[in-house]
Amino acid sequence: MDEDLIVVTGASGRVGRRLAVRLAAEGARQRLVVRSPDRAPDVPGAEVAVSPGYVDIAATRAAFAGARTVFLVSGREAAGRVDEHRAAVDAAVDAGVERVVYLSFQGAAPDATFTFARDHWATEEHLRASGLRFTFLRDCLYHDAVARFVGADGVMRGPAADGRLAAVSHDDVADVATAVLLDERAEAHDGQAYDVTGPEAYSLTEAAAVLSEATGRAITYEPETREEAFASRAGYDAEPWEVEGWVTSYAAIATGELATVSPTVPRLTGRPAQSLRDWLDLDPDAWAHLLT
């Protein structure tokens, strides 16, 4: 086993790619797991492993082989995502991995309002039972997701009522993951579940005002009931489980399940977390679609 080798799954994604760059900057040895080799980040010294999905047990086991630590990104949203996650955990056990840092979700629980948060809870439970050392990074919704709530007409619609959310940036999550993965006192993070949030909780009405200021166009928030939310999305070309996930992400804001602000980012990275305004300044490409 190579105790210094870190496997980064989802390395072509928005968190995984950022993490790979940060690990390379720190001189860490890493193996990047991607679905296609042409999607792997171009970072110095990194190995690349290809797995078409976690349910391909042989490919996933081979991608994990020889490594002590795996950073496990959740699979694509799908009806069978929990099965994929369980397959990945089982592959890690089979490959002799000792430690998994799992990117989970704030409020993960069997009765979470947000249906996808229930998937994360089920994955956490499988990890707890696996015998592996684990750390859960439970991030809130991303600032990026809030920006993508805005429709073509400049309106955010959903059953969030006047609830608040402590949204976070992809950069902050990647920085926290880097800190946890490279900490010489790795055992201090064993068995921990860290909420990873921004520095403040804001309502969608407040978010709309900030986005309006940044874009120079009128962006508003229009509350819906759950029934109205399902009805307004009935014409989308989406599976029922997917629509339920969209609607319940807003509903979780309404219930306050995403409102708690955590000190994880400043405590583990030594700098403040990015606010919505910070994120708008630092990542303009992520919300450029709102300008058209």
Automatic annotation (TrEMBL):
Gene3D superfamilies: NAD(P)-binding Rossmann-like Domain, UDP-galactose 4-epimerase, domain 1
Domain NAD(P)-binding positions: 10-183
Pfam assignment, any one: NAD_binding_10
Name by which UniProt lists this protein: SDR family NAD(P)-dependent oxidoreductase
